[in-house]
């Protein structure tokens, strides 16, 4: 098994000669900066990856035995180099998701040197680093599940493929709120020595949508209007997440005006819904016909010098 | 197969890796409202609180404040046009 060598000193930003105290301080500083629970939701997955790296580095460098073992073979290696572990350290297959990062595990490099990390190591779970324990619960796993507006409103059934071969069927209940999580008991990391499997938490995140922009529980959509529709008012049909509806554009609608359709937005829990806003965007003809041009000329006359800017 | 919507007190304790006394403590501190059943949102939130305590050494109340503040920042950033 060849894995990428990891320079743990580089990860923590300390010299190879750093004292235990210096390592501890460097780790604490980075942990405070990179902790995924301090990151905005959109950056949490990336922050988790980096946080895992510093945890892994700290796990090795803060333990004199592991550090000595690492130092003994680490000196001539560079970060990212292919690394073949010396015989006798035993390989181990990490459970990983196709679509999601497993938020609990250490790298294959770590596993190749030190064997499997204790479940929950570095994640603040009770009983970590508990020495030898024959029975260990599996890691809880948190992951993000991108969903569409439709899936939140109507509910949906999804099959998620995991790299250990398991397929998990997930039901997104009708009316789920963006940002909430589904808990799938026993679908996280497998337990060890007869211990129970961990749980899987799937955080529902609205996937970017070509039509709608989310703002909290409200949705915005563009409403293109011809100049005369905006000036004179009109009845238009627009596609909403609930199907086509008729919308009254009042006379004198300015570009950027938000026409509200109450209760047509995203679910906000308990059956309630946010609003949908159709945002007026006045579109001018790029290639007006001769008749249109004459009409606009007449309009200029009628406006009698009332020009913008 | 789908996730159950709500968790009993025992299930909550197990999901958080706490003993029943730990749940009592969360209630005493006002981080958890006493109820026979709890929503998954509550579980996820308390897991964040406990991680911050375990990983950074923040106390429970401090960690709860941090989670609230991060959520608030999140909403502000998301709603910014």
How would you describe this protein?
The complex is a heterodimer of chains A (309) and B (81). By secondary structure, chain A is an alpha+beta fold. Chain A folds into three domains: 3-114, DnaJ domain (Helix Hairpins), CATH 1.10.287.110; 141-206, HSP40/DNAj peptide-binding domain, CATH 2.60.260.20; 213-304, Sandwich (HSP40/DNAj peptide-binding domain). Chain A has eight helices and 15 strands. Chain A is elongated and about 90 Å long. The termini of chain A are far apart. The model of chain A is unreliable at 87-104 and 118-133 (pLDDT under 50). With 81 residues, chain B is mainly α. Chain B has a single domain, classed as Multidrug-efflux Transporter Regulator, Chain: A, Domain 2 (Orthogonal Bundle), CATH 1.10.1660. Helices cover 67% and strands 7% of the residues of chain B. A two-stranded antiparallel sheet of chain B has the order 1-2. In chain B, helix 3 (40-56) packs across helix 4. The termini of chain B are far apart. Classes of the chains: A alpha+beta (309), B mainly alpha (81). At the A-B interface, helix 2, strand 5 and strand 6 of A face helix 3 and helix 4 of B.
> What class do helices, strands and sheet pairing of chain B give?
mainly alpha
The total beta strand count of chain B reads: 2
Q: Quick one: biggest sheet of chain A?
A: 4 strands, mixed
Q: Please bin the fraction of helical residues of chain A.
A: 25-40%
The helix/strand order of chain A is: EHHHHEHEHEEEEEEHEEEEEEH
- CATH C-level class of chain B: Mainly Alpha
Q: Please provide the count of β strands of chain A.
A: 15
Shape of chain B: globular
Radius of gyration of chain B: 14 Å
SS class of chain A = alpha+beta
Strand order of the largest sheet of chain B: 1-2
Alpha plus pi helix count of chain A: 8
Number of helices of chain B: 4
Oligomer: heterodimer
The 3D shape of chain A can be described as elongated
